[in-house]
Design a protein that fits this description.
With 143 residues, the chain is α+β, with helices and mostly antiparallel strands.
């Protein structure tokens, strides 16, 4: 009987040690993720898109909800969500279908146009912007 108690006591002690070590590993993992974020910011790298990365930019593996064929309400019911709509005799047609990626924890939404075929700048509803020129470093502490 005393041998059984000793073994149970030893098992309990080992399980407690395992829980403590597991907690330490989780804390170290969080520190590594924080350091990786800081390194990415210091290196000046762009934040990756949720679509490509399958996680939100500031997330630690939060699950995403992809909406590959987003819809909107039209006069005849649900229609594919699009960037540009053109009216015609038989109704309107959309160009530039949109997909969404939503973080299930913070509800951040990232949208992407799937296809730009048929979308041309018209200076009214579609405007083409040229990239801004690169700014010269000011020499100050913030670069």
């Amino acid at each position: 009987m005393s041998e059984t108690k000793k073994l149970r006591s030893r098992i309990t002690k080992l399980e407690q040690q395992m829980l403590e070590q597991h907690q330490q590993i989780l804390e170290q993992h969080q520190q590594i993720l924080d350091l990786k974020r800081q390194l990415a910011l210091a290196a000046g790298r762009r934040v990756h898109w949720m679509r490509d990365n399958r996680r939100r930019p500031a997330g630690d593996g939060d699950r995403l909800l992809p909406i590959p064929a987003a819809t909107e309400l039209g006069r005849r019911g649900a229609t594919p969500l699009a960037v540009v709509h053109e009216s015609g005799f038989f109704g309107s047609t959309g160009k530039g279908p949109v997909e969404h990626y939503i973080c299930r924890r913070c509800h951040l939404i990232e949208s992407h146009v799937i296809d730009l075929d048929g979308i041309e700048p018209d200076r009214t509803s579609v405007i083409a912007l040229e990239p801004a020129p690169e700014l010269e470093p000011s020499g100050g502490p913030f670069r």
